[in-house]
Every structure is written in C-alpha cells, then in structure tokens.
Description:
Layout: H1 2-9, H2 16-43, H3 47-89, H4 100-111, E1 120-127, H5 130-137, H6 139-157, E2 161-167, E3 170-175, H7 181-195, E4 199-201, E5 204-206, E6 210-217, H8 224-241, E7 245-247, H9 251-272, E8 276-284, E9 287-301, E10 307-308, H10 310-320, H11 323-338, E11 346-350, H12 353-358, H13 361-372, E12 379-384, H14 392-404, E13 408-414, H15 423-426, E14 431-434, H16 436-441, H17 446-461, E15 465-469, H18 474-481, E16 488-490, H19 500-506
Amino acid sequence: MSKLAAFFRGDPSISPICLTLFQTAGATVLASFLAVLAFKTVGVHYAGVWYQLGVTLVVASFVAPIFLYPTYRTSANLQKANAIIAEQATTDHLTGLPNMLALSSELAQLLAQGDRHQPFAVHFLDIDRFKQVNDSLGHDVGNELIAATGQRIQEWVGDAGFVARFGGDEFVVIQYHTSNEMAATQFGRELRVHLAKRYNLSDHEVNVTTSIGTALSPLHGEGQDQLLKAADLALYKAKETGHSSCVFEPRFASEASNRRRIEGILRDTIAHGTLKPRYHSIVHAQNPLQIAGFEALCRIELPDGEVLNPEQFIPVAESTGLILDIGAYMLQQACFECANWHPDLFVSVNVSPVQLIRSDFLTTVQEALNDSGLPPYRLELEITESVLINDVEHIRTTLERVRALGVQIALDDFGAGYCGLHYLRQIEIDKIKIDKSIIDDAETVEISRNILNGVSLIAKQMDITLVAEGVDDISKAEFLCQGERVHQFQGYLFSKPVSAADARRMQKILPQQSTPDNVIQLPVRKKDSV
C-alpha cells in the first residue's frame, strides 16, 4: 500500500520499472472490466465485434507500458536532475558549504517562530590580507585557502551552529542558542585560534588570521537583513580598529552612514575637480624667517562652509580606493604649483600606503614631473610609518625607483607609530619628520628628550635632514635650536596652511624683509647665547 500511495503522490523515489508494473496491472484490470461490462450490456447483439474489442483492450494494456517505459525513465531522470540542481543552488561549489541562499533559508526558519524563537548569534568573518595571498601565491592557492578555511570552520562548529560561505573570503556562522555577548565573544575567539593554525597549500605554508564581527538576535535585529548588516558593520569596525573581533554597537550604524556621506562627497569632489590644496610652510631652523619649502595638504571645503580634514576623509578614501585619484591629483597640483616658485624651494606631498601598493606609483610620479616641468630634486614624498608594515619588499623597490629619479623621500610622524629603526636600514630616507608628540615633551620630559637627541645623532651620522613637526611656540623653537638638534621647523608658530596664492607671496619673504600678517616672527638668538 505504501508503494501504491507513493505512486499516486508522484514520489520520485519510485523507479521507472515499478511505475511500469503498476501501470500494467492497473491497465489490465481496467481493460478486462470494461470488456466484460461492454459485452454484458450490448455484446449479445454484436458478439464478434465486442469480443475483438475486449481482446484488443487487454492486449493494449500489456503493450502500452512498452512504449510508456521510456517516458517514465525520462521523467525519473528529470526529477533526479532537478534534485541535483536544487542542491547545487544552495551549495557553494568551492567549499561545499551552504551558500547565501541556504543561509537566507536557515535564518528565515530560525526567525519564523517570532517571539518564541531561540536566541542566536551571527558571526561575520573574513580572512585578513587575503589579497596578499592571491597576489603573491596565485588564485589557485587562494581558492585552496578559502576551501581549507571553510572546512576548518565546519569541523570546529559542528552541530553547534550553521556555516555558510557568504562570498569571496567571507563566511557566516550562526551560533545556536546564544543570547549572551560574552559567550558569543568567547565562541569567536576560540574559532579564530582554531583558524590561525598553519595551512599547507600546494607546497606553500601559509599563516593567516581572521577578523570577526558579531551580532545577537533579537538584540541587534529582528530580521535577517538587519542581523547580517549589524554583523558586517561589526566586522568593518574590527578591521578599522585593528582588533581581531568586535560585537555590534548601535553607533556603528551612524558611523557607516557618515562614511557613506563622506564617500559621496569625495566622489563629487573628484568628479568636479574641487579639491582644495593648502600649503604649510617649512622653515630653516637656524633662520626661521626663511622658508625652505611647503607641504601640500588636501582640504575639502563644502558649500555650507564645512571643511573636511584628512583625519575625516583619508580612511574612507583608502578603504574605497578613491585615494588613488586624490593622491594623483594632489601630486599633479603640487608639482605644477612648485614649478612656479623660487628654484630653491621644494614641495612635499603625502603618499598613502594604498598608492604604493595598488597603483603604478612610479608612472604617476613621472607623469607629474614631466607634465609640470618640475626638477625631481624639488619634489619630496612623505610616507608614514604604517607604510612600512605592509609589503616592505615591494614598497622598498618602488621607493628605490622613485628615488632614482632624484625625488626625495621623507619619513613622516616618526615616533608616533610602531616603526623600528631597522626600517632605516631597509629603505633609504632623505628626511625624518619627528612627530609632534615627541616635540611637545622634549623640553620637559627626559625620555622624549633622549629620543630626540638619539634620532638627531642618527640623522647626523646618516646625513638625514631632521624636521620638527608641531612647533607652535617660541620656547620649543629655542630649545630645538640648541645644539642644532634639527634642521627644519614646521608648525603654527610660523604659519598656518594657506592657499596657493598666499604661498607664492610667502616664498618671497627673506630675513631682512617684513613678514605678512599670517606669518609669526620668531626672535632668533645668536648661537653663543643659545
């Protein structure tokens, strides 16, 4: 009876042979019944005809399945193919894990119970610096890493949750029966430790780390889109702050909205060419009224008068890749401006790590110099310490080629980050700009003073120009002049960042001339009185 019921339900598990047998038996019984019934009613008058008809019906009931069997077989194969397609539609082909469609279905089922559903956590994670693996070892190894990572996640999570590949190097893990933030954080921490074990991929040993963003249901969202978005925002914050993991906070949403606003402003600014370069003077330490050059600073002024500073828009520009257009534009503008200055003056332009890694930076520099006609020795490129923790070999090669053109390289904000002096052995530097945090304390704090003196000694021995940043009062300038600790000053004591027109006027100022209103004069002591 179960087979018969399955037959009438159209169950695809019934084989074509069984279907044929069912059809044969049914057709035979039905044909015999019709033949007998027809003969009893009118067959007495036409006995020969109904006899032949009855025999024909019975014979047809046996012959018909022969012709119907291929149809049954085709139908069964089609059903199997449809089942395979349905499975493939919910499975990621690279990792074998459920895909986004399956993830959506799982979340829908978990949330379908409304207020009665069990709380759970959604973990959004990706592989840190995955692009470097692809670029250095190739996409095949990158795919192996994704597959191996997915397998490790599934092995570790087991029945405690649901694992899906979201796309690229991103995965989503649903942790069942979890409403406690501490438990969710511990889950993510242990998962990261498990994933951090070394991978052996195509004769390559690869060590990677992962970042995780976590959202809790129903605390951080009642729908699947809200939960995934919250976990994604938490992942972004984890990467932005350099932390391994992060749990969603409501403020992340407003921060994301502000990032989108700034991104829109940047795109409009680039499209309309309304970036506003400003120039901050750099003066000679032993003659502070004589300008040595200017640092080109990028400022964005909005129609309502709001001014976006680099601290606001540079992180957004770097994360979106817009820094490539902004950096190239600033370099071009600075070179064209400096080409019209006094031939003894230089211009300094900041360079983002993204520019050095993701673009043909050498070509960008060459084009700026060629188009403007600026001699290479009058261009100075400032890199920060954060540049040197990325791909040192690639960056060193790029900077060597740029320096071979005659362009000067300056290390900016020295002492504010995590740069070691050993980087000075790997990359040739022409200038070091000491961070304001050290300059501020050097006069009163012994350790800052010792650092300053040590860097000054190294700079002298390596023939590196030393610049003091953030010099904003006379006492600092006088202290720094003692023993000729530094070669150049930069700070609000001498000038605020000004427009290109004001920079052209300022460059003409010599010690014996009067200074403009926006330049603060520094009484310079004679060396014997210092």
